[in-house]
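call fold(seq) -> tokens
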Amino acid sequence: MKNMKRRAMLSLGVVAVLLAATAACLVYRDARPTALPAVSEQVTAIETDPLTEFRTERQQLRERQRAELQDIIHDAATDADTLSLAKRQLMSLMDREDKELTLEGLLTARGFEDALVTVDVGAVNVLVRGAALTQRETAVILDLALRQTGVTSGNVKIIPIN
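ret:
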């Protein structure tokens, strides 16, 4: 029984760490100066767009987490406390996904070419395609993030991605 609870908590921790690490990699990878790539490298760069990669990785992680939580929920040997925790975590996951998709859609509707949002407990990361953001653009993103997620402004990170 305790192993099931540990597994559920470990799953959440692993997903949170992987999402944070992936976001950090995107930021630091784009900050490095690089020479212009050859034509064949340009094709590869298009195929491995950082936002597309992150979106794919995020979806794969969420699917694995959802599957693990579903396994715990549907396991007849799961005790009541672990079952309750797994259900809450699944609902939290679904709520975060809904907020992310809504905020991404709103940002696209407001004219941002491409945006990717991660919502965690008390923190929001907004990755927006573009070399730099104006003060006005930053204010629009911040306002939307605050209204959609309910976090405080100090817990919203807005990251431009080339």
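The chain has five helices and three strands.
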